[in-house]
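Researcher: For the record, we're logging two predictions in this thread. I'll number them. Prediction 1 follows.
Model: Prediction 1, sequence and structure:
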Amino acid sequence: MGGFFTGRTLTGIGRDLRAGRESARGLVARVLDSVDKDLNAFVTLDAEGAEAAARWADEELASGVDRGPLHGVPVAVKDIIDVAGLPTGMGSGHFAGHVAEADAACVTMLRDAGAVIVGKTGTQEFAFGGSGDVSVNGAVRNPHDRERMSGGSSSGSAVAVAAGMVPLAIGTDTGGSVRIPSAFCGIAGFKPAHGTIPADGVFPLSRSLDHVGVLAATADDCRVAYHALTGPPEAVPSLLDGSSGGQDGGTPYGRVAWIEPPACDPEVERRVRALFPDAPSERIDFAGLRQVFLAIEYSEAYDVHAERVAEAPGRYQPATLARLEGAGRMPGWRLVRALRERDRYAEEIAGLLDRYDLLAMPTMPIPAPRIGATEVGLGPLTALLVSLTSPWNVLGLPALSVPAGTVPADGGGELPVGAQLVTRRGAESLLFTAAEHLTT
């Protein structure tokens, strides 16, 4: 499964670039050689553009211009994010042949940081779903088992990293679309607080819930990439006031609450819970938050797609069209109520985060299902895929998924699972500190 970048960190790659042991042009060549077409992670490779950008990055580094830890690093970008001169197809027949005229804001940030854009990665059609197997380009396959879902909607970005084709990818997350495929594929995925990385130039699914995020092999690589794009972190005081542990869930990275999942595969819950053995259990209203999420997502998604649904429904994948038609039947009062309820839930979770530094839970309640599945033992797949991730989009809080080992798969073998950490806005550094302790 491993490609050239498997086991390599952004810090190590940067060190090799600056010592002359690697060149940006050489890294681009490695990307192009590492692409496994059977996984279907990439929909567009930009060899010419990447080689030109890499040449410029090498020349800058040689002349003493250093733009930071992403300088010369190859990066893949999800195919709902505009990259000037490249197709942005959104995984849909509606945008066949569409070429972006300008870079999205996050792509501009990448270029300013010296990163080299190597291509566009596959996405669930219009990013509307968490399975990774609904697209005009076909299913993106999980590198741990090619008959299983990669997760979505940032499916290609996760697989490109997990298979070692690139060290870093950019995705989007509306209900879990960075964290879901990260958990299924055994990598790290970080959704910053809402609006931290601008979404200009990203095709919208639900503007109130859409986040731009990063996917990498480790949480530390996510940290490096996030800070390269947004600036160094500010000091964040812990509730422990610098102490290294304590009662009631105290740890070197703060007080942690274990959030009880409403439905979860027992092996997944056991594996993730073992990382937080002393954390006290808390419950939140996942069912109520899901209703808020659906009302906002469906209302805003239908606003984006209403004319296309009316004029050219046949260009959608059937599963996407069915979801949009359902969204069109959402009554207006549901959105009004959801916005009011969101404020109430925000106050409740803020109170929880006044007592704890971090909230922990599984990222996904199940390991990756087989491609094409619609039901699993716990119930309908569509609801399960976002059951533990979507609340943090509703509330706009930063959330990080980190690899948490593996569990036995039905039919034999092992599949990755993820642990999800959530904190208050401005305390992102605690997520990365916790991840460092959990993975050492």
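Researcher: Logged. Prediction 2.
Model: Prediction 2, sequence and structure:
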Amino acid sequence: MLDIHWMREHQQDVQNAADQKGIEISIQEVLSAYDERKALRQDMDEKRALRNRLSQEIGRLRADSKALSDTAAAHMEQVREVNKKLQEQEEALRMLDAKVNQLLLLVPNVVSRDSPIGKSDQDNVLLKQVGAPPMFSFQARDHVELGALHDMIDIPRGVKIAGTRHYVLKGVGVQLHRAVQQLAIDYLQEQGFTLLDVPLMVRGEAMTNTAFFPLGQNQTYQIGTEDKWLVGTSEVPLVSYYANEIVDVSTPIRLAAASSCFRSEVGSAGRDVYGLYRVHQFAKVEQVVLCEADPELSEAMLQQITRHAEHLLQLLELPYQQMAVCTGDMSQKTYKQYDLETWMPSRACYGETHSSSNLHDFQARRAEIRYRDQAGKLKYCHTLNNTAVATPRILIPLLENHQQEDGSIRIPSALQRYMNGMKELTPAKTEGE
């Protein structure tokens, strides 16, 4: 969340961010409810102080006389009235606390000045393109056809097992799936990231602290009636690892995890339903950085983790473009974001495969992650995250861009050591051969 005093001084900026991100909230209502709660608490504190003074006076009067004086009796009646009023106010305070907390959880992060203004991903701004889309001299196959040809992707049986938007990877499909993850893990470890194996089922508190709840709750799978939720990214447990702690970020903390992820995709019916593009279960290698609350430093960290993702795309020999994400395509928590989109021949366009975000201290405030600056003052960290690689989506461009006329698929040299030295995949034999 944002500092309430800063929010008051920048009320219009915060309201603009809410409007641009499509979050229906009145910042004036938030501030009014906060002020109402503050005034009620102050009044209750004054009543408690009065009750304490009266109680002390009653005790003194009782000590001075065996019989209660008229003054003591009046004091006792006044204490009863104060207690009655406090009881009424305590209920009002509980209701106000719930209202204020609910409203504060909806307040968005503000957006960087260099982020484009827009309503959807159609308004994202192209920053650069790297590599050229392949020009095939033959009728290219899409990843579903290639998957069947190589007996590596079985969507019908995935749907039979688990329903729509599920799949099964087989043989070399599993090898590729794991190879791209291991490539990313090895590279990030070389860059100084600490690898963690984290829980995929977390408490609702962890989802709220990382700003995935309440607005993203409908995208998340709940475990029965428990307060346990399947994560859509290991960003949640990676950030929550340091929740409610004071950390040392004299050198930025760099964490990474490879994990399965789950997303309900509510509201995306009919969108990108073909193949492996938008599925309910997938895997990601995630980068998370915690650093000092220095805008220049966290901007440098954003550029760095984005370069890591770009480097991995270059190792995979895939053409891609970098987009500056507009306000309307950002989440509540995001201050600044880049997307990397990779060329997908079957879609005849670039598709989003990576995302990098700088959240400033928005997430750390919710998760209570702080550090001491050089003067010893406690401050909230800046947090950042990036998708180093997400699979099976990355298999779409990997298979389609590297296919050859005979149906074989070239394996980029960086992946070959993770594929038992294979340089290309040849089509599986059909029955009867």
